[in-house]
Amino acid sequence: MNFTTDPFQIPEDQQTPLVKWLLEIIRDNKQLIETQAKKIEELKIKVEVLDDELKKLKKLPPKPDIKKSTLNENPEDKKKGTDTKRPGSDKESKKLDFEVHEERIIQPELIPLDAKFNGYREYDVQDLVIENRNIRFKLAEYIDNQGNTITGQLPVGYTGHFGPKLMAFIIYQHNQCRVTQNLILEQLREIGINISTGQINRILTENHSNFHEEQLEVLKAGLEVSTFVHTDDTGARCQGKNGYCNVIGNDLFTHFTSSDNKSRANFLQILAQGNISYVLDEYAQAYLLQHDLPKVQIDKFNFNEKEIFTSEADWKEYLIKMEVTTKQSQHILTDAALLAGAIHNGLSPNLIILSDGAPQFAILIHAMCWVHAERPIRRLYGYTELQKIEIEEVQTLLWVYYRELKKWRENPDPLKKEVLLNKFDEIFSKNYQNHRLLNEALQNIFSNKAELLRVLDFPFVPLHTNAAEGDIREFVTKRKVSGGTRSQDGKKSRDTFLSLKKTCRKLGVSFWRYLNSRLKCDLVVPRLESILRLKAAPS
Predict the structure, then answer these.
(1) Taking the alpha carbons of 484, 489, 492, 496 in that order, is the dihedral positive or negative?
(2) Residue 346 pLDDT more than 80?
(3) Which of 84, 193, 304, 368 could form a disulfide with 451 if both were Cys (CB 3.0 to 4.6 A apart)?
């Protein structure tokens, strides 16, 4: 019998008992198999429907249909049918910055007697040397005629029993590579360095006044040369207590500051660049009028005399003297005085602050992120089919309008500005009778019209705070790896080195070379403040 033959095609008189048995089983189960197949198809459809419903409830985007990008394809190559290299696959030359530290001459194992020397064939290899290097300085001593001892001094950069390169390595590993102190200890001991946990902690947290000063220099220069900055904050624990870390920056610099609260007064103190003062002048008066401080309170002060206080204690004493006793009035007056003080000390009153819309950032010229403005609508749930349709309609209109703003930002046209302003009113002043929460979300967006449309007056301002969230993510990752800090020195050092690391990255400076330069006290890497100003200057 040919076993490749269909068993149903075999004549009955030629069927073996085994074939007959198999055919009976197939006939009996054929209907069952067909029924199960139908049920499987029905379940597949049901699962897809439930999956789509679940994504809607969770506000998850649909699975993207990602197609191959054609941006880097050459149409001529497609016509010819030739294969092109993958974008980014072209190798960069390794000889541009190749510095030879050691040369080794290698002779052939067997050289014939009649062979003539034909020169050397160069073969370059990059390697890394990681080993402990113990140095014993012998400081010569002399005694002069008066009996005074004259002793040789340690080279610049050697301030303790650990050299500058070792300290740079520890700081780099902890802040750039996010290696914990315990793992750094284990790593160094395996290399052969005799060091303790306490010594590593002191290297990471203590005696960094020069780095703290440079971080403040970067903030001052960044605020001075920038037309806008983005900002955000996140939680930061220190000594077991909750706190907050604020980030300020743009494409030139990043500055982290941790504090106990995230009030507007705290944000203004950060913008004061280390020179906090309380001033009552025309800027403070304008702030008070904008924030509806009662006229009876405003009339108590003479803003033409420009009162200046340099300490918080003197300022609080002055408020009591002027009979300002309610907490609300004290908070508003303090914010006004701090803002005027920051402007008095150099902060530009025309600086644009781009934020997620948190109230503590709404000062100077405030701009809001469109992505955060849309989130309340995305969180809404439609209980009826009509409500779902209305939510989807608003989201569609919002993102279509957003894309139009992006196009306008790339190519500003004064003639289209009025059209965009009118279209904003048309979309976000609309009232939906079937969804109260949707109307509230739209009214909230409409009330922030000026902040959301700053781009129409300042096209260089981004429409979102993605860069700020990218900056703050650096801190969040560090927090997840190392947890909170245990001292004020540790908190300050963490903020400083994260700020300097991110700033180096934005300015195109090697953080490793920067640390070595500062700890050796040389000028191989210039001050970051000068690099920032040079990069910000028009070409």
Answers:
(1) negative
(2) yes
(3) 368
